[in-house]
Amino acid sequence: MNGPMYPFGPAKVVPFFRKLRARIIGTVALLAGGFAWIVLYLAFLASRFAWYQNLAVILVSLIAVPAIVVAMWVSWGLSMGRRFHRAFWFDEFP
């Protein structure tokens, strides 16, 4: 491997942590927003629909929000693997 394993200097460290901070803030915002959506939906809109329609809305919410969070973090993890040459495709198998 050429060069250092980890970023060095403000020019490299600041963008690294900016992207990490954005994902952390996005994760917290998505989880809080998803929980608020479910609570507000049940409080104000659920009475207009049948129980199975309400269940479908809640299940879609419980699937969509974590899927977005997982996609955010997987993309970050793959980019870190590429950056530090620690991805699964760099492993040498006997």
Unreliable stretches, pLDDT < 50, 5 or more residues? none
Structural class: mainly alpha
How much helix, percentage-wise, in residues?
over 70%
**Radius of gyration computed on alpha carbons:** 20 Å
Task: Assess the beta-strand content as a share of residues.
Answer: under 5%
Mean pLDDT: 84
Tally of strands: 0
Relevant terms:
single chain, 94 residues, mainly alpha, 0% strand
Tell me what the structure shows.
Helix content is 74%, strand content 0%. Helix 1 packs antiparallel against helix 2 (51-84). The protein has two helices and no strands. It has a domain at 16-80. The relative contact order is 0.10. The model has no long low-confidence stretch (mean pLDDT 84). The radius of gyration is 20 Å and the shape is elongated. It has 94 residues and is mainly alpha-helical. It starts with 9 loop residues before the first helix and ends in a 10-residue tail after the last helix. It has helices at 10-45, 51-84.
Q: Would you summarize the structure shown here?
A:
With 94 residues, the chain is mainly alpha-helical. It has 2 helices and no strands.
Note the topology:
Layout (H helix, E strand, L loop, with lengths): L9 H36 L5 H34 L10
Helix pairs in contact: 1-2
